[in-house]
């Protein structure tokens, strides 16, 4: 039974996966020795937004932003998602067309 105001298990899994995606992006940036400013220049995403995402002040940055950041990091989205799933423990499945 769903309790009022309590997120469903699926919603919690999606949130956990989103947090893991953001963490993997930050790790990729740091591993590449790239500053937030440089990532901003390459991705077209403001440095302020990148900082808020990495600090978890933005919990759902949206697909376009994630794709732009991943692209600037030369990190294919399928690799990013695979890494995020592995570390999040989230059982969320993403449908492909």
Automatic annotation (TrEMBL):
InterPro entries: Cro/C1-type_HTH (IPR001387), Lambda_DNA-bd_dom_sf (IPR010982). CDD domains: HTH_XRE. SMART domains: HTH_XRE. Residues 25-80 form the HTH cro/C1-type domain. This is Helix-turn-helix transcriptional regulator.
């Amino acid at each position: 039974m769903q309790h009022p105001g309590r997120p469903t298990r699926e919603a919690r899994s999606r949130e956990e996966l989103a947090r893991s995606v953001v963490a993997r992006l930050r790790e990729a940036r740091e591993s590449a020795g790239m500053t937030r400013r440089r990532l901003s220049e390459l991705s077209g995403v403001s440095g302020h937004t990148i900082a808020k995402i990495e600090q978890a002040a933005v919990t759902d940055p949206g697909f376009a932003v994630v794709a732009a950041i991943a692209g600037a990091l030369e990190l294919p989205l399928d690799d990013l998602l695979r890494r995020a799933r592995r570390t999040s423990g989230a059982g969320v499945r993403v449908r492909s067309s």
